[in-house]
């Protein structure tokens, strides 16, 4: 038996396919000319929590305050994107967060039509010594994301007026 032909008697060896039969190998994964990437252990060290996990508004506007917390073990930089910049204003848009630290996120809705909207909070590890959050976020790096749904409820004008009247009375009574 020659060494160029696989042996049928040796364990684990493959027999050659007869001519004309297609191979049944799975296709290789597409890599677009790049080497395959290993799963990043860095993502597990990056964790951002948002509380409360959604924002509720009424059609004629309002404000919602949230706490963004870095629950990971690395310093983070985050960026907030909104699906409707005409009606929603957000502060801060960019910020750094050290491990275990939190920052308040203010969301303000102006009066306008009701539709499904959301905030996308993207985050990644910040390099030591970085001071400009906007510039730090533009650099390449592993990015995580979390979504804050912006829920707007349609309250009839009578209901909204009644709620404002009740609120105004409670303020007057407490003075």
UniProtKB/TrEMBL annotation:
Region of interest (Disordered), residue spans: 1-39
InterPro entries: Ig-like_fold, MSP_dom, PapD-like_sf, Sperm-specific_class_P
Keywords assigned: Cytoplasm, Cytoskeleton
Compositionally biased tracts (Low complexity): 1-15
UniProt biased composition (Pro residues): 16-31
Lineage top rank: taxon: Eukaryota
UniProt cross-references to PROSITE patterns, sorted A to Z: MSP (PS50202)
Domain MSP: 34-169
Function: Central component in molecular interactions underlying sperm crawling. Forms an extensive filament system that extends from sperm villipoda, along the leading edge of the pseudopod.
This protein's name: Major sperm protein
Organism: Mesorhabditis spiculigera
Source lineage: Eukaryota, Metazoa, Ecdysozoa, Nematoda, Chromadorea
């Amino acid at each position: 038996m020659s060494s160029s032909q696989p042996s049928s008697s040796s364990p684990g060896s493959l027999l050659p396919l007869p001519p004309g039969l297609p191979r049944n190998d799975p296709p290789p994964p597409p890599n677009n000319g790049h080497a395959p990437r290993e799963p990043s252990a860095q993502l597990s060290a990056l964790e951002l929590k948002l509380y409360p996990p959604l924002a509720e508004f009424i059609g004629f506007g309002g404000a919602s305050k949230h706490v963004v917390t870095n629950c990971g073990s690395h310093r983070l930089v985050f960026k907030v994107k909104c699906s409707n910049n005409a009606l929603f204003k957000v502060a801060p848009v960019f910020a750094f967060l050290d491990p275990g630290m939190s920052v308040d996120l203010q969301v303000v809705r102006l009066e306008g039509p009701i539709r499904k909207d959301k905030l996308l909070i993207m985050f990644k590890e910040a390099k030591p010594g970085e001071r400009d959050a906007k510039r730090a976020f533009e650099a390449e790096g592993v990015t995580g994301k979390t979504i804050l749904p912006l829920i707007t409820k349609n309250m009839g004008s009578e209901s909204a007026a009644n709620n404002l009247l009740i609120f105004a009375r409670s303020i007057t009574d407490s003075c």
